[in-house]
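Exercise 7. Given the components listed, write out the predicted structure of the assembled complex. Treat all entries as one system.
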Amino acid sequence: MGTHSIDPAGARDVWSTATARNGLLHFIDICLRGAGQVMFQNNPLTGLLFFIGVFWGAHAAGMPAVAWGAVVGTIVGTVTAWCLNAPRENINMGLHGYNGVLVGCALPTFFAPTPLLWAYIVIGSVFSTILMMAFTHMLRTWKISAMTGPFVFTTWFLMLAAYNFANIRITGLPHPTIAIQPPASELYGLDLLQFLRACLTGISQVFLINNVATGLLFLAGLAVASLWAAVFAFFGSALAVGTALLLGAGTSSILAGLFQFSAVLTAVGLGTTFYHPNWRVIGYAVLGAIFTVIAQGALNVVLNTYGIPTLTFPFVIAAWIFLLPNLDLPPERIRDKSVSGVRGQGSNHAS
Amino acid sequence: MGTHSIDPAGARDVWSTATARNGLLHFIDICLRGAGQVMFQNNPLTGLLFFIGVFWGAHAAGMPAVAWGAVVGTIVGTVTAWCLNAPRENINMGLHGYNGVLVGCALPTFFAPTPLLWAYIVIGSVFSTILMMAFTHMLRTWKISAMTGPFVFTTWFLMLAAYNFANIRITGLPHPTIAIQPPASELYGLDLLQFLRACLTGISQVFLINNVATGLLFLAGLAVASLWAAVFAFFGSALAVGTALLLGAGTSSILAGLFQFSAVLTAVGLGTTFYHPNWRVIGYAVLGAIFTVIAQGALNVVLNTYGIPTLTFPFVIAAWIFLLPNLDLPPERIRDKSVSGVRGQGSNHAS
Amino acid sequence: MGTHSIDPAGARDVWSTATARNGLLHFIDICLRGAGQVMFQNNPLTGLLFFIGVFWGAHAAGMPAVAWGAVVGTIVGTVTAWCLNAPRENINMGLHGYNGVLVGCALPTFFAPTPLLWAYIVIGSVFSTILMMAFTHMLRTWKISAMTGPFVFTTWFLMLAAYNFANIRITGLPHPTIAIQPPASELYGLDLLQFLRACLTGISQVFLINNVATGLLFLAGLAVASLWAAVFAFFGSALAVGTALLLGAGTSSILAGLFQFSAVLTAVGLGTTFYHPNWRVIGYAVLGAIFTVIAQGALNVVLNTYGIPTLTFPFVIAAWIFLLPNLDLPPERIRDKSVSGVRGQGSNHAS
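Answer.
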């Protein structure tokens, strides 16, 4: 089915030449690719559209620190990888930026932006790169990638610790609670506009943003790198909305995108990054997205006990479980192609 | 010490010939072996006796959905393995049925049998096979088997998620609670008949059934495949009863078999499947069973916080820990025999 | 930078000759090395000073069972390794004693010293050796060591289980609680003497002892084997005090050493055992110690839910994460030296 993309080849060449000549542009290129890799796209234009979406959504929510945190996180994560002599090709693909960008988005979403929080963001981004190198080494044993695991574990550690540290001011973490089923009063149907809205916020929430326009910008960002990725992201989100409604998840959570964002990543990852789209792959990605919604519900219950959110861990666990069997889903696997424009989050071809 | 079995060789030959000729009989054979593999027995007669025990116990408890769930789970798990091209020899040994049969037993034990629950059972059985393939690939690194891990994790995910999903009606899950020690009033001694009863319910609870007759049927099922397996199952259960009484576990839980069923699996697995019975192996299996009782207590405390049961995870963790050191316990290990009638749960000889 | 040590070479030779001749002295040597290995020192004099510190601290706290538990745990752990045919060279280095000594310290700290508790200590020390062999086999895949993981998991299992077992009397476990941030009233500054006190209790808490003199004895024990180890232990503790104060941890916990003991182990391990001291290693060890303090806060929150303490797990997780990337931090790595007087906790060179 080949790689379809609306990224104009001419502009790409100009950019390649410019980044090869200028160190600062090269660094910016890496940071943009880092943002793009959050959804598996090794593409600076994708990353640019993602950053625009994040700034738009953070501004609309009155939380600019979320966007600036994203910038700081990407830079620190990338620089740390340099200092620790991570393989240069991985750095250049943005594989040491995507965890930092998410750490930087997440912390100001849940904590007050005090000076100490910025220190927390910096040290968290450093840790996310060390964890990235640790996960990559460990998971190479089974030929699977770190996904957003380093971001998730780093941020969980920082969040949990905050309950012990009075100088980090918690503003947005869920109250620690014991599990109860949602009352029926929290369930209601969605009309078509609400359904579309839920599909788009499901995409924007990948960066912890609840904003329809951001969702559209993210779809555009995917489309410039891979039309298939945009298609899987949208329908993955729609499938998650449907599954969550059928099972009876709280409707306001669905409208905020909270049962969908991990399924979006699972659908794009299984459908277009680790496998090439074909009917069997579509079936497998559908199973993976449904599993992700169930994992979202399960992890909500476990983590609410401690007063922390799941972040993208439902995606991480689904991707690991569905990739571990190492299924052969013909016609071909991207992994087997020695030259490929699309490379997965955290995949390490240096092994 | 050889393999003793009261399975008549003549009947076995007739059955082998019949299954080789008829596709439906072949499929039934695989499903029966799937049930047998729950206690490590690659034997259709064992599986038949297990199914009879499950139907008897489910009927006696007025919960027929538990038994039908077991049938559905076995079939779906096995068919999924076929669709995903799992190694044919593993499928034929029932290694893709034993997790599904347990998923099918467990869900109707804890949820109301609504139409949506049957969808939940089907999708859960599909996931259990994917997890089985994932675990098998991962654990091959250390030459250990998946045990009932895929069943446990699949069912935990489905149970935890249900607290987020109002349309899955919880009927039997424990209320989420913070740990407290049982009051002394919950402790009392057992007379010999009660002790025997506890030994047998400890065996029946492997399939989540609390029934003495089912326990006897399961022992008979083990005996037709391996007398040693039946002996280790019974004395493993007795040892667990003794350990739990000595430590002061709640007596009503012991009578219901809840501190024993995982120890039964550990004793049979360590004593007869992964090692051959001899004095050192018996000592190691005794240690393993005692550890399993302690793990049962520990996991009760952790998982009660979330309102879910341990299922057979105390066995899984004990088996992994006790097999990982890869001890050489002579005279011989079954694993090293290229031809063997007894094969372990999830062991994969295709690697 | 070489290995500096104030252990007199003459006395060492006399001891070596004596242990080679006398079986009992040889066994005592192994047990002392086991205590030394808690802080990575394969040195009997270190172990002797550690035992003196433990007896002193346990006596001062009126809890002699803590010290005798340490003795029993070391002996049982070591003997178990013999019975299970663990590699003789690992046993001789004390690698099967250091988990048992900690199990023996921990259980009487949290439980009443009833006869049943002594059975619990014996069986726990047996398990700690089996877990040691299991972890060692598993972690060899990534060339990292078990650290104090076997102690931690064994003791967690035994503690959690106690909430189910009325005959094990809990005296010191934290009440299971849901997370809340400490009130500002729990924060106050430290004067220099209090700061020094916190640095030393942070070292003594490695063996669950809250005692300044014990901290000094432990520093002396480190110094006789490696001056660098003593330096990293002290400054690791000081750095942890500073980090915890800055973040706003409860000051009384800091005075009791509870945010420091794991950081002490991380600093000594990263700075002197798994790497040789140089500027980049110092920087990496500083990052590791800061991460350990944050992990301490995070794990406090998670484990308080179940009413158990973190033990040294913040160190274990930090060491695994910081060693997994397998960084090359020149000039040289101890691991690469075929002959070395300093060997890490649980490192297995037989692989």
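Discussion: Chain A touches chain B at residues 141-142, 178-184, 186-187, 246-250, 287, 290-291, 294-302, 305, 320-322, 324-328 (CB under 8 Å). Chain A has a mean pLDDT of 91.
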